[in-house]
Amino acid sequence: MTLLSVRQTTDLLGCHRVTLLRLIRRGALHPVRVKRAIRFKRDEVLALCNRNIAVYPHLRLVRGGL
After folding, report:
1. What does the alpha-carbon distance between residue 53 and residue 15 come to, in Å, rounded to a whole number?
2. What is the DSSP letter of 56?
């Protein structure tokens, strides 16, 4: 099992740290604690890359219009 740092994960996903936090909050990505550091499973990150889920995760479909 290969673990990635926050920076490696954001680079691989092509997103900002805030987006990474949103993905964690949504349950799309699960952090792993290694002592005081936060790491991510490489396989899980690659699965997100394949689903293209990191692109604009903060946008939501709103029904009813403005």
Report:
1. 10
2. S
